Amino acid sequence: MLSQHEIDQLISSRANLWVPRESIIKAYLHHGLVTDRLRLELSDGRTVKLLWLPWDKALQPLQTTLRSWIGDKSHSRLNASLF
After folding, report:
1. Which end is more exposed in the chain, N or C (fewer Cβ atoms within 10 Å of the end residue's Cβ)?
2. What string of DSSP letters covers the chain?
3. What is the pLDDT along the chain (83 residues), one digit of tens a residue?
4. How far is CA 16 from the centre of its chain?
C-alpha cells in the first residue's frame, strides 16, 4: 500500500495522469497486436486514451478493476474486445 506522501508525489508528477474513478463515464478496452489501449470518457466531457504494450499484461487487471468501478453505474459500460 502506498503512503499518502507517495500518492501525492505520483499525482503531482507531470509524467502521470490522475483520473478519479468517479469521473469515468465509459471505458473502452482494446487488445491489439502492437498495442493495447484504454479510452475513457470522463464526466467533464474529456476523452483520455492510454496505450501500452500487450506483453505488459495489463488488460485483464484493468478490465476487472474497471468493471468493479463503473459496473454499478447504470449509464456506464465497459466494452472489451479481446482478439
Report:
1. N
2. ---HHHHHHHHH-TTS----GGGEEEEEEEE-SS-EEEEEEETTS-EEEEEE-GGG--HHHHHHHHHHHHTT-TT--EEEE--
3. 789 999 888 888 888 888 888 899 888 988 888 999 999 999 999 999 999 998 888 888 888 888 888 875 433 344 544 43
4. 13
Which string of b and e fits 13-48 if b means at least 16 CB within 10 Å? eeeeeeeeeeebbbbbbbeeeeebebebbeeeeeee
Sheet with 78-81: list strands edge to edge. 47-52, 36-42, 24-31, 78-81
Angle ∠(68,16,56) on CA atoms, nearest 5 = 60
What's residue 72's pLDDT? 52
pLDDT at 77: 44
